[in-house]
Fold this protein.
Amino acid sequence: MLQKYQKLKKKLSSLKSFRLSFGGIFDLDQKKKKVDELVLASENPAIWGKPHEMQKINKEKSLLEKSIAEWTNFNSKLEDAKVLLEMAEEAHDEDSFKEVKNEISEIRKLGDTLELKRVLSGELDANNAYISINSGAGGTESCDWAAMLFRMYTRYADQHGYKCEILDMNEGEEAGIKSCTLLISGEYAYGYLKSESGVHRLVRISPFDSNARRHTSFASVSAWAEVDEDINIEVKPDEIEVETYRSSGAGGQHVNKTDSAVRMRHKPSGIVVSCQTQRSQIQNREKAMKMLKAALYEKEIEKRNKEKDEKNALKKANEWGSQIRSYVMHPYQLVKDHRTGYHTNQVNDVMDGHLEELIMAYLKAQLTGSWGGAAGGDGLE
């Protein structure tokens, strides 16, 4: 019994040390002061007629209040566990020791979440996210794989209470999709989903092959943050090519009868965006321009980050075009992230949108700089 007490006491001491070291970084007093300032700003009559400004203030206040509540909850649970451990030791109660053990495990998870949010302090991390999926070479196989990824990300969005809007979709000739663009809206959507940019590889027995042979398919995913309208991003009219075409997606009577879909290409950067889900060409044009500005802003942020950080491992992990993850369904079950080395045999869970562990492994690697995926593949070429 004494040995259990000492072991749990040591774990609690470790969590207290974490609280002490992390508390200075978290800066609770500064966050509370900022909330008070935002409350005062929202009470200013001059801002009431500016809904966009009011929305920004409320969003920032909500994020800060949630952050403060999480820190307060962590502290409260830590103190409760300390009292419970003392009571368990005095009473020599086995059930109470088990309860303390479970509580400490939960507190550790809360601490990990708080620590990971240090990584989500980037300029755009709290924003909504655009996700673009493009099938690779391979025809029907790759189109089907792109559709599987589309389902995976929409499931992830549903599970986390994010709103998911399809902005553009081009269906495959036989099955699946050639490409699609999603807008996933919610707190820190981009902060989490930025981990998904890169090439995703699937190995499976093809359902389209009558000889039941193993096939390898590729699809590329790109994630970038939606930016606020007040961020000044200049796009010169002579730098973009605009193409209109007939929407191929499902819609009302109007959607498929006119050239309402819009595709924009930014000539200097080569960035291409498209939108076909709005009812009019004007609305699709506005959405496409917003996407283009967000993509250009993301490109500028990446350029600045590359200039600041010359670490080759980090560059490789974030570089567009890198094969970041393999999903093996045959001859065994494995999902492996090649940047972090994290792997799991729960392929079906991952395809159902349970990406939390993969994303957290990426954020932890970003926090510590320990990119460990270079060594060892999945054993399949």
Confidence is low (pLDDT under 50) at residues 250-255, 310-321. The domain at 129-226+309-368 is CATH 3.30.70.1660 (Alpha-Beta Plaits). The longest strand covers residues 214-225. The two ends are 53 Å apart (CA to CA).
